[in-house]
Amino acid sequence: MAQDAWWAVARSEEVTSAKPINVDIGDQPVVLWRDQHGAAHALEDRCPHRRAPLSLGCVLGNGMIQCGYHGWTFDGETGHLKNIPNLKSDAKFPPIYRATPFGVAESAGFVRVCLNAKATAPVATNENLPLSGTVNVALDHDQYIAALFDDPALVLAMRGVRFTPYLTTELIVEQGLLVMERSCQWAGPHWPAPFSSDFPISLRIATDPLTGESELSLRDDMLRPVLTARIAPVPAARGVTQVRWRARLAPQRSGLMARAMGTGTPFTLRSAIDGAALRVLKPSASIHAAALRAELTARAQQSSAA
Amino acid sequence: MLDVTHPSSSDDHGDAIPSDPREFAAKVNAWVPHDIVLKDAWFPLAHSFAVTAKPVRRAVYSQPYFLWREHGVALASEFHPAAGLIGAKSTFSDAAGRYPVIEKYGYVWGWFGNPANAAPEHVPSLPYLPEEGGLPLHMLGTVRFDCTAPLSLENLIDLTHADFLHADVVGDEIMDKETVEVFHDSETITMVRTCVNKSVAPIMKWFGGVKSDVQQVRQVIRIYLRSHAAIAYGRFSPGDNVQLFHPCVPETRDRTRLDYAMNTTNVKKTNLFRYLMPKASYKVSRQDSTMTSPQSPRYMHPEKRKDLHSPLDEAGQKYRVLMLALAERQARGDYAYRDNVSADCSDIIGYQKP
Ligand code: FES
Ligand SMILES: [Fe+2]
C-alpha cells in the first residue's frame, strides 16, 4: 500500500459528528468523523489502550472522539490522548499517549485519507457531482480495476448505454493518468457493434495508476458531455473493494437516448460482479495497464534517485 | 478499603509479580492471551440442573466433555456414553475416558489436566453460593462471548468500562472519587473499587427502589486464574448487594462460555430487582461483546506496539502478569498450587454471611 496515496474512503455526506464511521484502506482500519466546526478527522480505528475500535465510540461536543470502552478521549488532528474521564485529573499525557493520525483532505464531495499524516494534500477541486453512492464489491482492488478497463459493463451501468469492445484510444499515459476511450452504443435496434461503422457515444476513462480513482466521461459524437462520473475504488478488508462514486448528467443533452437518461437512474455501480462472465473475460486493456504502471513506477524511482 | 490483611504467598518461591517496574511492564506488554492454556484446574462446565440422564456436550480448549448422571451422580467423559471409547484418548481422562468430576455450588466441575492431580481443595471458594446448589432457575443463565476467555476477565476486572459500556444499566462515570486497590496471590487476583457519590445505577433506580441520586459503591472482582472463574460482588448503599458468579469457560481459545449465577436471594421478594438483575446479564454481556469480539483477533499474535495504560489499569496489568507467571511455571513442568483457592474468601471480598 503506497504510503502517500490519497484514498477517497468516504463521501462527504457519510462523515458526520453524530457517529464516527469505520472504513479501511487495505488491512488498515480507519475511523472517520467530523468535529463541531465541520472538519473531518481520521485516526487508526484502534484505541491504543486496549485495541477496541474507536468507531464504536462517540464524538464529543468539543469535536474529540471518545472510545466507547473506557472513555479515553482523543484529539482528531494529532491523535493525542486528551482525557481519561475516570482519572478526574487535568494532568497532561506524555506524547506517546496517542492514536495514530492520518492525513485528511476533503474536496468535491469526497473525504480522502492518506496513511502518511504529513503527506501534502491533493489539489482541491470544486467539481459538483450531485448523484452519489457506495458499493461493497467482493472482488479485490486490482481485479476490480482490471474489470473496469476490460469491460465496464461488469462493474457499472449507464442508463441506455452499451459498451463495445472497441477502443478509439487504447491506454496511454496522459498527465500521469492512465487514459483510454471506448466506443459505446445506445441500447435499441441497430447493427451489432462488430458490424457498425460509427458509434454515437464514447466513454473516456482517466485513472490514477496508484489508487484506481477514475474520472468517467460519456460524450456524444460531437464531443459534448452527456454524463460525468468519478469512481473511487478502495481496497478494504478481506479482499473487498469499497467503491464510492459521484456523478452528474450534463444539463443539456441532445438526442432522444441522451435526454432519456434523465428519467430513472442514469448511473449505478454494481454491488455484485457476474463471476461467470468475469472468469472468461479476455484481458486486453488491463495488460497494457500493468505495463504502463510498471513503466510509471520505474520512472518515478529514477527521478527520485536522480 | 479491605478490613483484612491479604494472605501472603504461602511458600518461599517469591511473588509472581516482579518488583522491577521495567520487568513488570515487559511482561504486561508480552500479553498474547490466546497462547495461554493453563492446566490442572476445575472448570464449572454446567449448572447442576443442566446435567441429567441425557448427556450434554461441553468443551475446554476443544477437549470434549460429555456430562450426564447415573443414579444421580454426575459423570464426565471424553466420549459420548452411547458411542463408547472410540479413537484416540487424551491424557486428561482415565483408562475409561472419564474425567474427575465434582459437584459444588450448583455446578458440575470437570478437571482439565492430569487426573492424578485433581483434588477437591482446588475448587474455588464462592462464599455467597450455597455449596449444595439449589438457587432458583431465574438466577441462573448462560451467555457466550466471541472472544478469548482472558479478555473477558480483563474486561471484568477493569470496571471503569462499565461506566461507558453499561452506563444504561449500572450508571455512568459521574462520581466524586474513585479508588482501586488490588490484592493477589499466585492463584488469584482481587480488585476492590470504591466509588464515592456515584450516579445511581439506572436498574436500581427504576426497579430496585433506590430513590437518591447518588450511592456509595464498593465493587469487588476476584478472579481464580486457573479456573478462569470470577466473583463479582457489589455493595451499594443505598441499594441491594449484587452477588454474581462469573465463570469464563474457554471452550476454545477464542470463544467463551459463561454459565452465570446471580444470587439475589438477599433482595426482598417483593422487589422487582430480585428477578430483573439476573436477566441484566443478557444485555450487559452483549454490550461487553461489542468490545471484546473485535478485541480478540487483535490479541491473537504478539504485537510490536505496546498497549498504553492508566493508573486505573493496575488490576488488569497484574492479571496479565499473574497469568503469564502460571503459564511459565507450567511450561517448566510445575503444576502445583502454591495458594489455596478453596479457603473461604469472605473476608477478602468483604462479604458477611447472613
Ligand atoms: S480500549 Fe479504548 S479506552 Fe480502553
Ligand atoms: Fe462488562
Give a verbal description of the structure.
The complex is a heterodimer of chains A (306) and B (354). In chain A, the strands form five sheets. Chain A has a seven-stranded antiparallel beta sheet with strand order 11-18-17-16-15-14-13, covered by helices on one side. A four-stranded antiparallel beta sheet of chain A has the order 5-6-7-8, with no helix packed on it. Chain A has a three-stranded antiparallel beta sheet with strand order 1-10-9, with no helix packed on it. The two termini of chain A are 24 Å apart. In chain A, helix 1 crosses helix 4. Chain A folds into two domains: 7-114, Rieske [2Fe-2S] iron-sulphur domain (Rieske Iron-sulfur Protein); 131-305, Alpha-D-Glucose-1,6-Bisphosphate, Chain A, domain 4 (2-Layer Sandwich), CATH 3.30.530. Chain A is built from four helices and 19 strands. Chain A is mainly beta and 306 residues long. Chain A has helices at 141-150, 256-260, 275-280, 285-305, and strands at residues 6-11, 21-25, 28-34, 40-44, 58-59, 65-66, 73-74, 81-83, 103-107, 110-114, 131-137, 156-158, 161-174, 177-186, 201-207, 214-220, 225-235, 241-249, 267-269. By secondary structure, chain B is α+β, with helices and mostly antiparallel strands. Chain B has two domains: 21-34 and 142-349, Naphthalene 1,2-dioxygenase Alpha Subunit, Chain A, domain 1 (Alpha-Beta Complex), CATH 3.90.380; 41-135, Rieske Iron-sulfur Protein, CATH 2.102.10. Chain B has nine helices and 14 strands. In chain B, the strands form three sheets. In chain B, strands 7, 8, 9, 10, 11, 12, 13 and 14 form an eight-stranded antiparallel beta sheet that branches. In chain B, strands 1-6-5 form a three-stranded antiparallel beta sheet, with no helix packed on it. In chain B, helix 1 packs across helix 8 (314-331) and helix 2 (149-157) packs antiparallel against helix 8. Chain B is globular. Residues 1-12 of chain B have low confidence and may be disordered. Classes of the chains: A mainly beta (306), B alpha+beta (354). Bound molecules: FE2/S2 (inorganic) cluster (FES) and fe (ii) ion (FE2). Residues 155, 161-162, 165-166, 284, 288 of chain B line the site of fe (ii) ion.
